[in-house]
Every structure is written in C-alpha cells, then in structure tokens.
Amino acid sequence: MQTEPQLKRPDLFRSAILIGGEWVKDSSAGEPIAVVDPATGRLLGTVPNAGRAETARAIEAADAAFPAWREKTAAERADHLRRLAQLITDNKEDLARILTAEQGKPLAEARGEVGMSAAYVQWFAEEGRRIYGDVIPSPWQNRRILITKDPVGVVGAITPWNFPSSMIARKLGAALAAGCTIVIKPASQTPYSALAWGVLCEEAGIPAGVVNILTGAARQIGAELTSNPLVKKITFTGSTEVGKQLAEQAARTMKKVSMELGGNAPFIVFDDADLDRAVEGAMVAKYRNAGQTCVCTNRFLVQEGIYDAFAERLARASAAMKVGNGFEEGVVQGPLIDERAVAKVEEHIADALAKGGRLLTGGRRHQGLGGNFFEPTVIADATPAMAVAREETFGPLAPLFRFRDEAEAVRLANDTEYGLACYFYTRDLGRAFRVSEALEYGLVGINEGLITTEVAPFGGVKESGVGREGSKYGIDDYLNIKYVCVGGL
Length: 489
Ligand SMILES: NC(=O)C1=CN([C@@H]2O[C@H](COP(=O)(O)OP(=O)(O)OC[C@H]3O[C@@H](n4cnc5c(N)ncnc54)[C@H](OP(=O)(O)O)[C@@H]3O)[C@@H](O)[C@H]2O)C=CC1
Ligand SMILES: O=C(O)CCCC(=O)O
Prior knowledge:
The chain has 14 helices and 20 strands. With 489 residues, the protein is of the alpha/beta class. The protein folds into 2 domains: 273 residues, Aldehyde Dehydrogenase, Chain A, domain 1 (3-Layer(aba) Sandwich), CATH 3.40.605; 181 residues, Aldehyde Dehydrogenase, Chain A, domain 2, CATH 3.40.309.10. The chain is globular and about 70 Å long. The relative contact order is 0.14. The mean pLDDT is 97. The site of glutaric acid has 9 residues, from loops.
C-alpha cells in the first residue's frame, strides 16, 4: 500500500524528474525506484530510474540555459532566490512532512532543516550581489590589471539522504547566485524533498533548464556528470569512498570539485568543563538525526577527573530519550535510514564490547519498536583498538574514551584520517585557544555542540573533503577568477 505524507499541497509530492522545464517519467536505467518510509517500511511511492541518457539531456538543458542566466544582473538572480526562500518558508510544513516521511527524522528536526534551507537560499540571494572583483596596482605605467569573477558554468550536484533538503540548498543557492546552472541528483532513498524543490524553483520563476533534478542510477548519473565536458564543476556530499571515486572521475576533464565527506568527530570534555553544558552539547552533537550527520560526535574523549560524572549523566540523558516515528509528538530520535545502517551500529557495539567496552545504556535494536529503530547507546572504557575509534558509525552510539592531559586529548582527537568537525568543553581561555589551534579540523565548536549556520563556512580538511559551503566563502567554488590586463593606455 502506498502512503503519501498528508500535505496541504499534494502537488509538491512529485514522482517525475525535471529536465529543461519538463517533468518526465523516463526510466532508462531500469524499473522505477521504490521509496520507503524508514519508520514503517511502507512504500511512499516510486520515482524514475534515470540513466546516462536523461543525464546527458539534463546537462544539455543546463548548458542551454546558462548564457541567459549568467547575463541576468545579480539583483535579478537575487530576486528569484529570495522568492524561492519565501516559497520554502511558506511551504515549510509540507516540506518537513515529506522529509520526515522519507528520511525518518523527527518532524521538529525536519522543520529545522527546511528553515535552514530557506536561510541558505536567502543568504546566497544576498551574497550573490557582493561578488566583487579587484583592481591590482599595476607594475606597468601604461597597463591596468583588473580581476573579475565569472560563473564556472554547468554544475553537477550529488546529495545524500541524511539532509535531503539543506544539502541541496547549500549547493543550489551558491550555484544560482554565482550565475551557474545545475543538475542535481539526490539520494535514491530521499528523492521527494529534492523533487519538491523543483516545483518551488518553477514557482519562483527560475527559468527552465537552470535547475534540473534527476533521480536514478547513481553510477550512471555520476559517470555522465563527471565525464561530460559541458559540466564544469562537481559538488558532492556523502561518503568518503564515493567522493574519492567522483573526484578521480572528474579529474579526467579537470572539473572543479567540492567534496563534503565523512567525519570522525571528537568531543573532548576537560576536567574544568561546565558539566551541565557539556552534557547538553553532547546530546545534540551525538543524537541529532539519530547520529546520522557527518558532524555528529563519533568519539567522546573525557578527562579522567570528570569521566565518571560525565558518563553517568550522558547515559542517564540517553536512556531518557523518546525514540519513535518522527511524526509522533515528543519523539527526539527517529529510525535509522535502513537495515544496513542498523547493522553497522550493531557491529561497532559488538566490536567495542568484545574489546572490553562497558555498556552503560542501550546496545540493541529498539525492543518495543523493532525495524530500523535503535536504542541510544553509551559505552564506557572505549579504546583506540575498537572499530569505532577509526570508522564513522553514523548512528546513535556514544563511546567514551579516557585521557589524562591536554596533549593526549589533542593527539587522540587528531589520530584519524578525517578532519571535519570537532568539539571541546573547557572554561580555561588559554586552553581554548591552544587546543583550537592544535586541532586538525575544518569546524571547531568550543563549549557548543551544534554550530552549523548559513553564515559560517562548512567543510573539512584531510579526507573529509575540499571546499566550503555556506558563508561568503561558499560562493568561491562556483566562480572562476579572470585576470584582464588593459594595455596601451
Ligand atoms: N558526509 C555526509 O554527510 C554523509 C556521509 N555518509 C557516510 O557514508 C556512509 C554510507 O552512506 P551512503 O548512503 O552509502 O553514501 P553514498 O556516498 O553512497 O551516497 C551519497 C550520494 O552519492 C550517490 N552515489 C553513490 N554511489 C555513487 C557513484 N558511484 N557515483 C555517483 N553517485 C553515487 C548516492 O546515490 P544513491 O542514493 O542513488 O545510491 C547518493 O546520492 C554512511 O554510513 C556515512 O558514514 C553518508 C551520507 C552523507
Ligand atoms: O551531515 C552533513 O553532511 C551535513 C550536516 C548539516 C548540519 O550540520 O546541519
């Protein structure tokens, strides 16, 4: 039985892809893709299984739309983006319901994500008007040196299932503000949020072909986006494994790339931390989206003097969390995305317990709810030998490592190939600066567990990726710098 989310505007729930202003149902890569609600396992509907042919058509449509879109003034593009941000806000409840139905996160979190999406689009509407060039003092008397910034051209964007709306917002907002056109491929498990964006882009008056949205065969779509010479940039959020593969493919035609990949975020609690604040921050840094966020804490590093108190408080707060269907009032943790995600959390728990970990709470599939629901889990006495020390769990597992001093905390925190987000709690100002400067990460939260905002740059170092999204820096990746030398003056 098909169970669409109850919407005020059912037309936002689309089962077709958007190519050059046409909604099409082509499925050249195989049978349409079934989309299920991860909370109930029920079928929400099907979407087209597009392949290389549809991708090539979408790229051609984006390329055809590019000259007129780049010719618009920044203020005209800003008008479209502002209208889009307003439409997202006006339809927030429906967009949040679609998001919860396909992704599982609690409705309050889905509303937050949709609100953040509107904020990104609004931000880029404003920022697009400030793409300034430079005039550089010339080393020649009779020449002038001008620097201008041009849109790169057609952008290929591939987005993940954990933030089906805001990951589109960061990419589409920046691309359109810069004057680029875009082909978007959302995750197959969460395509409906993306397709709803297509409806709203049309309503915002964004011309046909500027935004194209494809659902379908990831490898085929990825292969076409990364090899087609009309595409000038690839932007991706997802696993490090796929990101590396796409970067390799894109290198063959020297496309620009932005890669927002996996993390292994440490959350350090020093003895001098404000314990209430640290536990509060830990809960959001660990359990937002059921732990399925690339900036979610993967490892808690706790100093020995505060270890037992922190462990006891975190376990108590974790045990009190209401797990359930995201549509249910009061639920703070929904299901994981699928059985594979549940199995990975189970593996990490079994490995940790086999290597001496001590279970403080949780540890199992949710006893009452079953399916993809998992108990918030805290494990003490974690060690670097455990899988959880190295691999991203992407689920509601909080392992607690113990450290003696600041140097050891920094060493443990940096002992990973990832470098996306990290957090630490201290009341010592000197330590706040020392540790923040020593941490090899793109994002640092000091006494804060949730730091994402459209005004700050989001992105990692090391194998967590390249490029930044959001903020004034988030537009740079969609621009080429041009040096113009005016001679004979
Ligand atoms: N940085 C982050 O925010 C995210 C990190 N992850 C990490 O990755 C792990 C696995 O999650 P998973 O969903 O498999 O992530 P993937 O990296 O496989 O998926 C992300 C996106 O890439 C697409 N994709 C997958 N393979 C290819 C390919 N060969 N060419 C082009 N596009 C491709 C997916 O499409 P399709 O859905 O059709 O397969 C989806 O749109 C998670 O457990 C987590 O550790 C996952 C998601 C987000
Ligand atoms: O998991 C991600 O890739 C993005 C996280 C966005 C956020 O922090 O809201």
